[in-house]
Design goal:
four-stranded mixed beta sheet; 35% helix; Alkaline Phosphatase, subunit A
Length: 373
């Protein structure tokens, strides 16, 4: 899962204020000398053409484009639909959290928040970090997604205590249908605060997904990165949190060598967290180039009967106004040892869940169509 690597605005992007967004397309326009030889070899040009209504087919992998059916453009919604849960009711989005929610969290956790505003993570700690350090009051903020975020300096509110506050917040956030509560620890001093890799996500409990079906069939589901957080642990056999893309890629290689049967479900978050939200095109491209280099080496480890799917959960165009996700179609590369084929423009992310059910010999998944058919 290449977190936020979209490939062109979705048909309904205008309803989200995202008409014209194109994460991959704009990066390649801005950096025509981008070094992505492996992704191009696997059919990147075909994917970008499909996303724009074209029909060019080339590349060593089967390629297609996924269109999100659920309402929303957040991480949770995208991942859940990929796992086969299409949401008919979107998560709630707030620009200021209701007082009864804030009061309930404060009473149970024994804290008083500052903030309660929409902001980017880096901007909010610059603005309120000094006050937080002086008062020891955690920072409450949100964004255009369905998230309740709580930031605290690790030396002011230790990580176990921050996580405890977020667990309490999660309980109360359920009644307001908030997708995720996120612990956002940071360090540093005035004017040089920095977020750390000790973030932790607390998701709304998901409906049944193909991950649960795999578990029921004694097929292990191994989460890498924030996958277990996104699914609130539901359907996850083992979890391996990571601190960066590089850490995640190393973990994938290790697990790939050790695992003979099962699903390795990995999220590479740096594209989104470090470069998309911060509107850093060059950093975003550099992360893609690093992934491309890794993928070139990893391909030799894919055996004839293995199945590898590369995709994303939403867009986050670093050239687009604002700092939030963008409603986009997402790329799809499929590697399964068979001749490459055109997978076309798919009408739901849930085609991946249907494919996993098909590949592992489960009953057909009720949402989506298998890519292997």
């Amino acid at each position: 899962m290449l977190d936020s690597v979209g490939c062109g605005h979705a048909p309904d992007a205008a309803a989200y204020g995202d008409a014209g967004a194109n994460t991959l397309g704009h990066l390649l326009e801005l950096f025509p000398d981008a070094q992505l030889p492996e992704l191009h070899r696997l059919g990147l040009a075909s994917i970008l053409s499909l996303a724009q209504g074209g029909g060019t087919r080339e590349g060593a992998a089967s390629t297609g484009v996924l269109t999100e059916r659920s309402a929303g453009k957040d991480t949770t919604t995208g991942h859940w639909e990929i796992a086969g849960a299409v949401l008919t009711e979107p998560f709630s989005v707030f620009f200021e959290f209701p007082l009864d929610l804030v009061d309930a969290i404060e009473r149970e956790a024994g804290v008083r928040f500052i903030g309660n505003v929409p902001a980017s993570g880096t901007e909010i700690i610059e603005r309120l970090g000094d006050e937080h350090c002086r008062t020891a009051r955690p920072i409450l903020y949100t964004s255009a997604d369905s998230v309740l975020q709580i930031a605290a300096h690790e030396s002011v509110i230790p990580l176990p205590r921050l996580y405890e506050i977020c667990e309490i917040a999660r309980k109360h956030a359920d009644a307001f249908r908030i997708g995720r509560v996120i612990a956002r620890p940071f360090t540093g001093g005035s004017g040089r605060f920095e977020r750390t890799a000790n973030r932790h996500d607390y998701s709304f409990q998901p409906p049944r997904t193909v991950l649960n079906a795999l578990n029921d069939a004694d097929i292990p589901v191994i989460g890498v990165g924030k996958i277990a957080d996104i699914f609130a642990g539901s359907g996850i056999t083992r979890s391996h949190p990571t601190r960066s893309n590089a850490d995640g890629l190393a973990r994938i290689e290790q697990l790939w060598a050790e695992t003979n049967r099962g699903l390795i479900f990995a999220n590479l978050v740096d594209f989104d967290m470090l470069f998309g939200h911060r509107r850093d095109p060059r950093g975003y491209l550099r992360a893609l180039e690093e992934f491309d280099q890794w993928l070139a080496g990893f391909r030799s480890k894919i055996r004839e009967n293995d199945l590898v799917l590369l995709t994303a959960d939403h867009g986050n165009d670093p050239t687009f106004p604002g700092t939030d996700h963008t409603r986009e179609r997402v790329p799809l590369w499929l590697l399964d040892g068979k001749p490459p084929r055109d997978l076309g423009v798919r009408d739901t992310y849930a085609d991946i869940a249907a494919t996993l059910a098909d590949y592992f010999g489960l009953a057909p998944w009720p949402a989506g169509r298998s890519l292997l058919a």
